[in-house]
Amino acid sequence: MPQYPESLWRASTELPTFPQLEEDIKVDVAIVGAGITGITTAYLLSQEGLKVALLDAGRILEGTTGHTTAKVTAQHGLIYDELIQHLGEDLAAKYYRANSEAIEWMARTVKELDIPCEWKEEDAYLYAEGDQAEAKLRNEFQAYEKLGIPGLWKETLPIALEVKGAIHLPGQAQFHPLAYLKRLVEAIVKAGGVIYENTTVSKKLEGTRPFTLTTPQGNHTVTCQHIISASHFPFTDGGGFYFSRLHAERSYVVAMKPKTPFAGGMYISVDEPIRTLRSASWHGESLVLVGGEGHKTGQGICTYQHYENLEAFGDQLLGIESIPFRWSAQDLFTLDKVPYIGQITASDEGIYVATGFAKWGMTTGTVSARIITDQIQERENPYSELFSPSRFHPNPSIKNFIVENANVAKEMLSGKLGIVYTKPEDLQKDEGSVVTHYGRRAGAYRDTEGELHLVDTTCTHLGCEVEWNEGERSWDCPCHGSRFGYDGNVLEGPAQEPLKKLDAYA
Ligand SMILES: Cc1cc2nc3c(=O)[nH]c(=O)nc-3n(C[C@H](O)[C@H](O)[C@H](O)COP(=O)(O)OP(=O)(O)OC[C@H]3O[C@@H](n4cnc5c(N)ncnc54)[C@H](O)[C@@H]3O)c2cc1C
Ligand code: FES
């Protein structure tokens, strides 16, 4: 039976459960967020004998990591040509090396811990169908040659797509991310680490070392020497202006059982809208994951249309017998496409952040864990400078800083000024929309029983206007990607407070 919207990974993994924080605790390192970044960091630090606490606002691995496509590759779309232009050859080569070493580390870990996670070495392909895409791809290939990246130029693909060219990068991998991370979670617990679920950490930080973290209700505390924000969007800003230098983009994945066999390999297009492909399995059956249709969160077309576009692509390529799963998720982008990993600001010693993985967090989440572990253990790491959140590379940063802030300002204004004609009584069962309610803009959803749920559409993070996401039945914020349920409860940060509920009869 199809399970929508549910990810293949979550449906096929039984994860352990952990208690809510209900006491005051003292640890060496508190890690906020249990996705690939938080779990890998907690694993590394606990193996080195540090006492770690891993805290998650929801269940572990329910965030973006539970909804990824899990290609493990240093081929991050078109990137190396741009990195050379903005950062120079030395740092661009370091970006490749950091990600390649992360793949090697993950492969070694799978072997050493004997993790049954469908780890498979795979070939990655970046391909171009149109003329403009081909020109960009050729520049990218020149960048590979300059940096010594072992990519090969190909005129054809192993699958039935007509292309103008492709860069083939052998020696990459794919896996079942939750099967892999489940084993790391077990190792953290075995090494004495503690994990808490349904424990939101408040953005307010008190004092200097030792730090005290609190829950928003302030009733329980974690005292620690080091704090790591692995919460996707940083749970605390620390004066680092992350709200002005990160934006969220959603994308969609369809897990289909194909009518004709898939030749293997991992693919991503240069042409827009982006298409990605990889194989997977479900109860011994072969599936193909078709992904893409990225757009800024809260600014997409109807969600169903995104899924239909991916299904049409998959159907044309291989034919579709069935679609057991489909899901969507979002990831964060920095101003210069390079993640922010390291001390949250130049002056905040002991507080670290890892974010902005631009849909490549399987490797960069792992890179983060390795860098931050070295920094906490006061060891040199060759990649600290490249990923430092305090870096400043004038060209891309200044341009995108203005673009990001203009976009946020535009969303704040357009959301607040737009005229709305829909009224709550216009809504059918299971329908949601921004409406006019007693002369005020409001968010309304009529559930399947006919009950009306009304919320204030002002995002509780920094005040942008949320938009209705029909496919997920959620209120999504276009500014920094916060998401709320139809009843206003927080589904994804950075917002920590629910949307204000409005009285249907006020
Ligand atoms: C559709 C899609 C496909 C992708 N495909 C790939 C791919 O093929 N290869 C690849 O390398 N990358 C891919 N990515 C990117 C990758 O999945 C992400 O970069 C990565 O999973 C992010 O992991 P994370 O640990 O940083 O965040 P998450 O997995 O989101 O974990 C963050 C956790 O922090 C918790 N949290 C947030 N705020 C708080 C708080 N205040 N207190 C406590 N906990 C909090 C959340 O509940 C969440 O569990 C894809 C992304 C998307 C959206
Ligand atoms: S997520 Fe920042 S204003 Fe909504």
How is the secondary structure organized here?
Blueprint (H helix, E strand, L loop, with lengths): L7 H4 L13 E8 L3 H12 L4 E4 L15 E2 L7 H8 L1 H24 L7 E9 L2 H17 L4 E3 L10 E10 L2 H14 L3 E3 L14 E4 L6 E9 L17 E12 L7 E4 L5 E8 L2 E12 L6 H16 L1 E14 L6 E4 L7 E5 L5 H16 L7 H4 L6 H24 L13 E7 L2 E7 L5 E4 L11 E3 L4 E3 L6 E3 L4 E3 L8 E2 L4
Helix pairs in contact: 2-6, 2-8, 3-4, 3-5, 4-8
Bound molecules: flavin-adenine dinucleotide (FAD) and FE2/S2 (inorganic) cluster.
Care to describe what's here?
Among the domains are: 8-68 and 178-244 and 337-401, FAD/NAD(P)-binding domain (3-Layer(bba) Sandwich), CATH 3.50.50; 424-502, Rieske [2Fe-2S] iron-sulphur domain (Rieske Iron-sulfur Protein, 3-layer Sandwich), CATH 2.102.10.10. Helix 2 packs parallel to helix 6 (177-190), helix 3 (80-87) crosses helix 5 (131-147) and helix 4 (89-112) packs across helix 8. The longest helix is centred in the first third of the chain and has 24 residues, at 89-112. The strands form four sheets. Strands 3, 4, 5, 6, 10, 11, 12, 13 and 14 form a nine-stranded mixed β-sheet that branches. It contains ten helices and 24 strands. It is of the alpha+beta class and 506 residues long. The mean pLDDT is 92. The protein has helices spanning 8-11, 36-47, 80-87, 89-112, 131-147, 177-190, 303-318, 361-376, 384-387, 394-417; strands at 25-32, 52-55, 71-72, 120-128, 152-154, 165-174, 194-196, 211-214, 221-229, 247-258, 266-269, 275-282, 285-296, 320-333, 340-343, 351-355, 431-437, 440-446, 452-455, 467-469, 474-476, 483-485, 490-492, 501-502. It is globular, with a radius of gyration of 22 Å. Bound molecules: flavin-adenine dinucleotide and FE2/S2 (inorganic) cluster. The site of flavin-adenine dinucleotide has 40 residues, from helix 2, strand 10, strand 14 and helix 8.
